[in-house]
């Protein structure tokens, strides 16, 4: 089947001239710097009567803010533990000059951290859960999911412009995002808008947006990141379903640990928010089935209502209002009704499949089974054709370009789905 994709516009009018975004760091130099920083961190004497616990994370401001939230929570729960933060640069940080769709999958933000974890340089690593692949490397697992911040996507309009929604924007307005999921879904609703890649830290992206020489009208960013950075005032409006379903795990912080590390399991596990954990694990299970090891434009929305279990302990009172609240210990027995909505959208935005399931669940395994079931419904309801279209694009790329094909280098559909958004050659691959 021939598929013509509208062009994906590169950054324009000097919008990508920021030095941070135009120069790729030397990975070897960055790694050497990381090792020196870790050496200095480990040279600090332990506090008397305390054990040290090392958290690894990216060096970005948002990653540090999130890791400090984890550190504060751990030290409150474990006053005899001295939590130290070890910041590292990742592949995604080292290369700020290329669009994400040219660089592979989510492991861009995790693989260097996971090497440090596996080698025992750190005891656990902190992630934005939406950036974590559904398959962990051997020896690693998800140790805890913290309570979720607002999972929605946010519209951030250029300073000085009065638009309050995407619907108000004139044809040809340029919307900045590096997410294939957002582009695919928004193209379906707003075919006359243009979408351009934008890279860098959140603050860098905002500078690019507000630069008078740039042609960006607005950006789409995760609400949670803006809120955690104290930039919630820049949110013009939340963009939610049915216009835009958010990413799997968006708004949640995940802590990864080594399998079999009982000390880390006890310490990290104390932070688990079972409600968020069940929802996110259902979402991730859905994505794992749909991906098949590759990236696809998948959106989700989930909700959870707690159910009372016979013989469960009485609710505790909150400190402020005195209103009853249920127990939140992850190891306590729980029951809940989870509603999960999932969607798969073609890269062109011309077709989309949506499925929903509401079910009572009583364990993580139940939540994951729910996610797998909704993935099956999506595939049966038309998602198979969308996934096969991506697979066909990948195959034709491999046939035409041989070993030079980015899809072959980066693995299956993972890169081709992003590469097609450039608009240069994508339509030719799709129609051959």
UniProtKB/TrEMBL annotation:
Coiled-coil segments: none
Pathway(s) the chain acts in: Porphyrin-containing compound metabolism; protoporphyrin-IX biosynthesis; coproporphyrinogen-III from 5-aminolevulinate: step 2/4
Listed InterPro entries: HemC, Porphobilin_deaminase_cofac_BS, Porphobilin_deaminase_N, Porphobilinogen_deaminase_C, Porphobilinogen_deaminase_C_sf
E.C. designation(s): 2.5.1.61
Reaction(s) catalysed by this chain's protein: 4 porphobilinogen + H2O = hydroxymethylbilane + 4 NH4(+)
Keyword tags: Heme biosynthesis, Porphyrin biosynthesis, Transferase
GO molecular function terms listed in the Swiss-Prot or TrEMBL record: hydroxymethylbilane synthase activity
Domain Porphobilinogen deaminase C-terminal, chain residue ranges per copy: 279-305
Co-factor requirement: dipyrromethane
CDD domains (alphabetical): PBP2_HuPBGD_like (cd13645)
Domain (Porphobilinogen deaminase N-terminal) ranges: 55-265
Annotated GO biological process: protoporphyrinogen IX biosynthetic process
GO cellular component: cytoplasm
Physiological role: Tetrapolymerization of the monopyrrole PBG into the hydroxymethylbilane pre-uroporphyrinogen in several discrete steps.
Family to which this protein belongs: Belongs to the HMBS family.
Protein name: Porphobilinogen deaminase
Organism for this UniProt entry: Leucosporidium creatinivorum
């Amino acid at each position: 089947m021939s598929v013509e994709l509208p062009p994906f516009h590169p950054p324009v009018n000097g919008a990508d001239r920021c030095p941070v975004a135009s120069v790729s760091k030397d990975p070897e130099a960055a790694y050497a710097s990381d090792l020196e920083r870790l050496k200095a961190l480990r040279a600090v004497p332990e506090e008397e009567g305390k054990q040290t616990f090392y958290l690894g994370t990216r060096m970005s401001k948002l990653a540090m803010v999130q890791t400090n939230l984890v550190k504060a929570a751990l030290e409150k729960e474990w006053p005899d533990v001295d939590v130290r933060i070890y910041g590292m640069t990742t592949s995604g940080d080292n290369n700020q000059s290329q669009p994400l769709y040219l660089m592979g999958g989510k492991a861009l933000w995790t693989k260097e951290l996971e090497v440090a974890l596996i080698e025992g340089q750190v005891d656990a690593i902190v992630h934005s859960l939406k950036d974590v692949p559904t398959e962990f490397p051997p020896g690693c697992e998800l140790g805890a999911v913290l309570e979720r911040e607002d999972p929605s996507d946010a519209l951030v309009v250029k300073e000085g412009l009065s638009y309050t929604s995407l619907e108000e924007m004139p044809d040809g307005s340029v919307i900045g995002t590096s997410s294939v999921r957002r582009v695919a879904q928004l193209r379906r609703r707003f075919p006359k808008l243009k979408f351009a890649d934008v890279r860098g830290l959140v603050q860098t992206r905002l500078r690019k947006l507000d630069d008078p020489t740039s042609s960006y009208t607005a950006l789409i960013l995760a609400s949670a990141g803006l809120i955690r950075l104290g930039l919630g005032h820049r949110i013009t409006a939340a963009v939610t379903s049915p216009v835009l379903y958010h990413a799997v795990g968006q708004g949640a912080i995940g802590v990864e640990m080594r399998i079999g590390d009982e000390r880390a399991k006890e310490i990290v596990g104390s932070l688990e928010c079972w409600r968020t954990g069940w929802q996110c694990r259902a979402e991730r299970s859905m994505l794992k089935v749909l991906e098949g090891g590759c990236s696809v434009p998948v959106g989700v929305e989930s909700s959870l209502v707690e159910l009372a279990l016979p013989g469960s302990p009485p609710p505790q009172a909150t400190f402020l209002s005195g209103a009853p609240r249920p127990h939140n210990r992850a190891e306590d027995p729980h029951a809940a009704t989870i509603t999960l909505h999932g969607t798969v959208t073609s890269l062109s935005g011309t077709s989309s499949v949506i499925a929903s399931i509401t079910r009572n669940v009583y364990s993580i395994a139940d939540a994951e089974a729910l996610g797998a079931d909704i993935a099956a419904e999506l595939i049966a309801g038309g998602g198979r054709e969308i996934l096969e279209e991506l697979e066909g694009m990948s195959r034709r790329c491999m046939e035409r370009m041989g070993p030079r094909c980015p899809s072959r280098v980066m693995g299956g559909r993972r890169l081709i789905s992003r590469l097609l958004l450039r608009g240069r050659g994508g339509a030719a691959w799709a129609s051959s």
